[in-house]
Specification:
By secondary structure, the chain is of the alpha/beta class. The protein has two domains: 73 residues; 353 residues, CofD-like domains (Rossmann fold, 3-Layer(aba) Sandwich), CATH 3.40.50. It is 50% helix and 13% strand. The protein is built from 20 helices and twelve strands. The strands form three sheets. A seven-stranded parallel beta sheet has the order 3-2-1-7-8-9-10, with helices on both faces. It has a three-stranded antiparallel beta sheet with strand order 5-4-6, covered by helices on one side. Strands 11-12 form a two-stranded antiparallel sheet. The longest helix has 26 residues. The protein starts with a helix and ends with a helix.
Length: 446
Amino acid sequence: MKFIHWLRPGLKLKRWIFSGLVGIIMIAMSMAYYFVKTTNVFNNWVGLLIGVAGLFIVLFSMKNGIISILDLVYQPSTLSGKKDGNKLDKKIYDKKILARGPKVVVIGGGTGLSVLLRGLKLFTSNITAIVTVADDGGGSGKLREDLGMLPPGDIRNCILALADMEPTMEDLLQYRFEEGDLKGQNFGNLLIASMNNISGNFEEAIRRISDVLAVTGKVLPVTLRDITLYAKLENGTVVKGESNIPIKSLEENSPIEKIFIKPKQAETTKEAIDAIEDADIVLLGPGSLYTSVIPNLLIKNIKESLNKTNAIKVYIPNVMSQPGETKGYTVSSYIEVLLDHWKDGAIDYVIANTGKIDNNIRAKYETEGAEITKLTEEDVKRLEELNINLITGDLIDIKKDYVRHDAVKLSKIIIDLVLQWKVGKDRSRIIDYFYIRDLIKKTRLR
């Protein structure tokens, strides 16, 4: 009975193992033929043909056996991003398919960045997240003040978004102490702080933690300098500190006019520059406009690298406005502010949400002074004037009454955009285009 069960169709491997063995036997017969029957191999075409046929069968069986294994990759459970316990599936999926994905650089910070990264890693492993280090509030701010290190909060969220780990481990790294001297501190932040102390520098600490957590791609701080973010409000008030800016703007009922950093000569890392210049696509956002996205553009040589790269440059505005930062902003308002801080910059595409939220969610956000970011006819005209292409879609995802970008939908748009662009520039990449497009089609939304 066990033998009969073994003969049943399954992964389509047994047939190729069997045919491979037949090929090996034929090669052995051919070699035996020459050794036993003759000393002149060129006069014995029968043995030669048997050997060649055997070699062909072995190679053919190996090829089809590998294809059968790779077909495992396309099981729905894998393509949905959910683990099914098959480590071989996961390993092949990562190395054989995701490694063929486009080179994506994402610049920003905050929740929006980590949400997007969770979607992008389903389609490519060539991801570099360049993360702001201007945060000075909460547990990150306290570690920055007490230990003199860069704030780890946004870095931690990006690492967790790209990491391959069990849910329990992620819960542990996101755990926040509620009592004692560690009250308010995040365990993941403490891990980064500990690694920073034994590594010698923050960049090396992030690299080591990324290796331990099997991070897809790279997470890089935008600078290794200790920077402070400032804002000048329209009433002339200058506010010091990232966490104070929206608070002071609300208190004085004065919008932000511009932001700047000290020291002004802070530079980014060579690794970040190389990633930007080698990228297929560079994404700015989503994330807080003034405190997560623009601070990266204020770092010396980030703007220069963006101007030099041949990558597609895309801006993704938040789906909801933020009190004290972008209240009343429409899509073109975000663009105007971004380009005002990046005088010689150019954006190729804007990906804007056109989805709606229900009245209950809208009312909840309105009590907090936030509203959905609108795309008006005036916005469309202004983008045309700026020669910026517009991509729209229902990109809203609501979880626990919080409105976020739908990471998978947004990532599909991004990957499809860059693949079409790559094929247009290099026809030899058409195989990669259809390969990844097939992956996009098969990936479930949830």
